[in-house]
Amino acid sequence: METRTVKLTRIPVELHKILKFENLAASGGEAKHMIAEGRVTVNGRIETQKQKKIYPGDVIEIEGYRLEMEKEAAT
Fold first, then answer.
1. Which domains does the chain have, with CATH numbers?
2. Are 54 and 60 in contact (CB under 8 A)?
3. What is the 8-class DSSP label of residue 49?
4. Looking at residue 35, what DSSP letter applies?
5. Cis peptide before 12 (omega within 30 of 0)
6. How far apart are CA 28 and CA 22, in angstroms?
7. If 0-12 CB within 10 Å is exposed, 13-18 middle and 19+ buried, where does residue 42 land?
8. What is each CA distance from 26 to 22, 31, 38, 73, in whole angstroms?
9. pTM, whole model, 2 decimals?
10. What pLDDT, on the 0 to 100 scale, is given for residue 75?
11. Beta strands in 1-75 (DSSP E)
């Protein structure tokens, strides 16, 4: 499983937007479909809420990818 660290610039972020921005879905519609089908987990639990709010510390897993959320450091 490939692990990626995702730096969140805005908190919270909706789950489907993260999948789209990380190129794990070709579009927002595809991301929502993947979530609705139960193909995504958040913190080890299947998530079907397309607009689930994601925060630093959350872990998303989908199709061989693990996304670890972090807050982007202020500059």
1. 2-71 (3.10.290.10)
2. yes
3. -
4. H
5. yes
6. 11
7. buried
8. 10, 8, 17, 28
9. 0.91
10. 62
11. 2-8, 13-14, 40-42, 45-46, 53-54, 59-62, 65-71
Show the tokens assigned to 23: 């190129």
| pLDDT string in tens for the chain (75-residue length) | 899 999 999 999 999 999 999 999 999 999 999 999 999 999 999 999 989 999 999 999 999 999 999 998 766
User: DSSP label at 7?
Assistant: E
**What is the residue whose two structure tokens read 């913190």?**
43
The strand pair at 65-71 and 2-8 is best described as parallel
Torsion of CA 31, 1, 41, 53, to 10 degrees: -70
Residue 16 — φ and ψ, nearest 5°? -60, -30
pLDDT of residue 55: 98
